[in-house]
Design brief:
The structure is a homodimer. By secondary structure, chain A is of the alpha/beta class. In chain A, 42% of the residues lie in helices and 25% in strands. Chain A is built from 16 helices and 17 strands. In chain A, strand 16 and strand 17 form a beta hairpin. Chain A is globular and about 80 Å long. At the A-B interface, helix 2, strand 2, helix 12, strand 14 and helix 16 of A face helix 2, strand 2, helix 12, strand 14 and helix 16 of B.
Amino acid sequence: LEAEIITIGDEILIGQTIDTNSAWLAKKFNAIGIALSQIRSVKDEEEAIKSALESVDRRNIPITILTGGLGPTKDDITKKVLCQYFDTDLVMNQEVLARIEILFKAKGREMLDSNRNQALLPASCEVLHNELGTASGMLFQNEKRMIVSLPGVPYEMKNLFVNKLLPIVKNAFQLPVIYHKTIMTEGIGESFLVEKIKVWEDSLDRENIKIAYLPSPGIVRVRLSAFGSDFDTIKFIVDKKATELCEMVPSYVFGEDDISIEESIAQLLIKKNFTISTAESCTGGYLAHLLTSVAGSSAYFEGSIISYSNALKVNQLGVDATKINQFGAVSEAVVLQMAGGIRKKFHTDYALATSGVAGPDGGSEDKPVGTVWIALAGPNGVYARKYLFEKSRERNIRRSALAALSLLRRSIRGQLDHV
Amino acid sequence: LEAEIITIGDEILIGQTIDTNSAWLAKKFNAIGIALSQIRSVKDEEEAIKSALESVDRRNIPITILTGGLGPTKDDITKKVLCQYFDTDLVMNQEVLARIEILFKAKGREMLDSNRNQALLPASCEVLHNELGTASGMLFQNEKRMIVSLPGVPYEMKNLFVNKLLPIVKNAFQLPVIYHKTIMTEGIGESFLVEKIKVWEDSLDRENIKIAYLPSPGIVRVRLSAFGSDFDTIKFIVDKKATELCEMVPSYVFGEDDISIEESIAQLLIKKNFTISTAESCTGGYLAHLLTSVAGSSAYFEGSIISYSNALKVNQLGVDATKINQFGAVSEAVVLQMAGGIRKKFHTDYALATSGVAGPDGGSEDKPVGTVWIALAGPNGVYARKYLFEKSRERNIRRSALAALSLLRRSIRGQLDHV
């Protein structure tokens, strides 16, 4: 079964907006066994939209999703073009109008004609009611094909897709039974991981399981997928293989199904009832930000000291000034004292510390840009490790924070000998 | 002059990769007066690529950029399809081969046949030499039209586009003289800004200047553009109008030409030789992260205390426990003491403090999710302001940090009465 996406909006074609809706829709379709044959972005112009519609018609694409061009301003013409294309007229939808009126009342804003006109909808479409905004979804359907227009605002589009459209699609088409499981790994590069699990990977073929490696900086997601006729059967086989994978490389696996490292750490800390603090130099607060980006983080996160200056390392964290003079701020000795210092000061079970050369300046022959020391202090002692990351400041900050979380995770799970 | 983009790769159509290349290319084309008529993403399949090429042929699109599908693995077939389409053969390019060999030597990696085959290139194309990777750019050109294939890896694609392709495009086509200027504003919503500058905006028409409002959370970019025959003339007119705009709404303007708020703050702090520290509760380190994401931030950023727990607010920042009991941690009294406390402790010229309900939990009738107090302490006193942001934790954290930077900027520039 094939689907296609047409995103409508000048803002995409001048590069002002990155089209993230399409990737999101692609994932959702993929998960239910529908393959996208094409994604295209066209201008807010009658000819462009019509020509894209004619193209999917010509190729008999069963499902077409249009996003965007449904705003109240004059440049948004999708609705008008759809009326022409499907030879129908706009009629006032009283239910939609009532909802828009309530929305404006709640916000205490004046309602203009252009807002009221958002309730004018093509007579021949099925209206998909949008509870989060003024632009409704519109479903045009015949025996075998659907053309659906959704608003471009991501959270409105997503809500309409999941809650209104997906049930209709699942009902209208015979979808394959499909099951995915994603194992999240960190701390190992894609090619090294492939090498380590080669023999196991070969065994997937016999079970008709597909594997995909999805790398991003510091993280490789391994996705297993199977199609079949009975859900329980393919789930059983895929889960078994996923368990085998986890047992083969336990220290690299931090979770399942697109969980983030910070969420997996949060679960671990909450489960064990541990608290954490950080002392940050090169990460400059980004490590604390990751730890506190998870809802409910006050259960485990106590606080941090960001000590950019050496004076603060000495006065606030208890680092020996002599160590800084002797080894420099980016050194094992200093980062160990930072971690130990914050753990003691903030009375936490664990503490992480970072000190490195994030760049672009400040590198030397001994300590080039990307040199980072990370320390972990825990109930059983302190441990530090040196890393050499990249030339980009942004990536060094992110990779340092991920590496710190990785040390913490391994230590709590007993996979780190030292702490 | 029109251009079109075809991105090739299954990873885009399954939603694994968000196509950021197209938005980047769209901006670059836009800046030199070339409009994109369409962006489309197709699979790594012969038929799909061919059909996209036929479509641009049929419509006589002067410039077509293909990205992706140039890797060494079997699924990358762009090169093969281009050979068929342009009826030419692959020949070994010795210059490219030599460069690939050097690349592998430098990395100490073994070179496989598949890597060597990256130097096999269509005989009839002009090779665009890629110094950053093994996939070359390929330019197929006749009298009036260009079809260019570039690698999908963003930094390789960007380098080839700017350094190799752009000079050829500028030489081959008569491009309009164009000048853009972007004024960055924060702290005012798009519709309020439009209202404030309505009369001035009307005057742009007479000068043939186009205006575009580009909003993102907390920020509205205002871009002025003019086309003409003489660069100096249109630059003079646009710059004059931009200056008028800045003088009309001085407290909202933080810079020009896509500078970030944190970069503009950095320039201001360095220029005035001021230092800054932060005491963060709801922003959890994100404010410090923004301040330290700028290269050279050690010149002005001293450090931070992230005090998630009330105990740390009292012990580390000197907040009165009685104030927390009386007013709660999210209150004017507490956030003022946090800002004053960190400024004194870290001996900085300025200090920012945040305390709020980031959500999704923790809201009450009095203080719903999104309620945030932000304080600024400076040489002339302390000042606090209450905000009501959104329901999303991620956006509340970001908007709180931007609002804090906004207070700091206004204070330093003398636009805030209180500090």
